[in-house]
Amino acid sequence: MKTLKSQVESIAQKYADLVEKRIDGTNELTGDNLNDIYSGIQMLGHIVMTLERFSRIENGIDTAAESYSRIDS
């Protein structure tokens, strides 16, 4: 699980860098530019939620993980 979390953190950083470059490289915000930037921010939101889920599992406060562990018992 640590390897997967580390990979997701790496992807998050790279994706954030790409979105930042897209924003910085845009001279004029048009509908297409805004749509691309918005999609990038949405994807970052999904990645952040995945990282939050890892954190909740590691701290033992993820209710879904608890229900899975009961099934395994």
Largest sheet composition: none
**How many strands?**
0
Cα-atom radius of gyration: 17 Å
Structural shape: elongated
Query: Could you state the order of secondary-structure elements as H and E?
Result: HHH
Mean pLDDT: 83
* Total tally of structural domains: 1
Low-confidence stretches: none
Work out the helix count.
Answer: 3
How far apart the termini lie comes to: 20 Å
Strand residue percentage: under 5%
SS content category: mainly alpha
Key attributes of the depicted protein:
mainly alpha; 73 residues
Report on this structure.
By secondary structure, the chain is mostly helical. The chain has one domain (2-72). 84% of the residues lie in helices and 0% in strands. The chain is built from 3 helices and no strands. It is elongated.
Question: How is this fold's topology laid out?
Answer:
Blueprint: H1 2-24, H2 31-58, H3 63-72
Helix pairs in contact: 1-2
Summarize the structure.
The protein contains three helices and no strands. The chain has helices at residues 2-24, 31-58, 63-72. It starts with a helix and ends with a helix.
